[in-house]
UniProtKB/TrEMBL annotation:
<dbReference type="GO" id="GO:0046513">
    <property type="term" value="P:ceramide biosynthetic process"/>
</dbReference>
<dbReference type="GO" id="GO:0042284">
    <property type="term" value="F:sphingolipid delta-4 desaturase activity"/>
</dbReference>
<feature type="transmembrane region" description="Helical">
    <location>
        <begin position="27"/>
        <end position="46"/>
    </location>
</feature>
<feature type="domain" description="Fatty acid desaturase">
    <location>
        <begin position="50"/>
        <end position="275"/>
    </location>
</feature>
<keyword id="KW-0812">Transmembrane</keyword>
<keyword id="KW-1133">Transmembrane helix</keyword>
<protein>
    <submittedName>
        <fullName>Fatty acid desaturase</fullName>
    </submittedName>
</protein>
<dbReference type="InterPro" id="IPR005804">
    <property type="entry name" value="FA_desaturase_dom"/>
</dbReference>
<dbReference type="GO" id="GO:0016020">
    <property type="term" value="C:membrane"/>
</dbReference>
<dbReference type="Pfam" id="PF00487">
    <property type="entry name" value="FA_desaturase"/>
</dbReference>
<feature type="transmembrane region" description="Helical">
    <location>
        <begin position="179"/>
        <end position="202"/>
    </location>
</feature>
<keyword id="KW-0472">Membrane</keyword>
<feature type="transmembrane region" description="Helical">
    <location>
        <begin position="53"/>
        <end position="70"/>
    </location>
</feature>
Amino acid sequence: MDHKAFIASLSPDQARALTETSDARGLVQLASHLGAIALLGGLIAARVPSWPLLMLPQGILIVFLFTALHEASHETPFRTRWLSTWTARVSGFLILLPPRWFRYFHFAHHRFTQVPGKDPELAAPKPETWRQYFLHVSGLPVWLSHLRTLARNAAGRCTDDFVPAARRAAVAAEARGMLVLYLALAAASLAAGSAVLLYAWIVPMLLGQPFLRLYLLAEHGRCPQVANMLENSRTTFTNALVRRLAWNMPYHAEHHSYPAVPFHRLPEMHRLAARHLKVTETGYARFHAKHAPRFQAD
């Protein structure tokens, strides 16, 4: 059974329950994520004993706002639409990823998942050698990509085919607004002689990005390039902490099969789809242990 047949097999009551959104569930998830970032940021700013050790968990929390941005792009975390809009804006700002541009990018990824030449996630080749692997996991390529995207969009030179021509002015305005805010924050920090943003935001992001890269590689890495979402996407079985951090996106084949399902309904979606999943893995360490030996020598 492919994902289309699976969705067609759901009863109207099942489909309605699976796609039911909730402001309360979304706000609890968002508050816990942003609250943890604020707490660690406050402890780092206060220079509590051993505060540098807090920068790694802080960075992991910040870069995993990518999953909040991802969910908000689908407008599924909340019943109230503007909550998704602002979640995307705040999350995208904090990880240097323009939310409006990312929405177009991500929808193209869903429309053409694992289709070479059409899926924008395949535009940058996945690592095939040890050197490529460690460079990818370092996060440096993705930071350079984010900065290039911001600069190109702000200059009005966005030519990405997944961005509608009629929306490119809005994409440019978004990037310019983000750059202005970044410059304002930098100027305020310099004027105050404060390094809080550096140690509570910038350095932690650099430290945390490798963990997001390792996580994201498992979503489609080594999956068949076929149309069936239950086969071209991987569900990774992991612990409750990782599922909470990633807004339940380890249920990735389920998400791709039925993107209208909000994050808090994905465990239920998994129970219904489990026997139809084609590609799964028990943990991220196991995925990389299997993935890495297949790399070519440099």
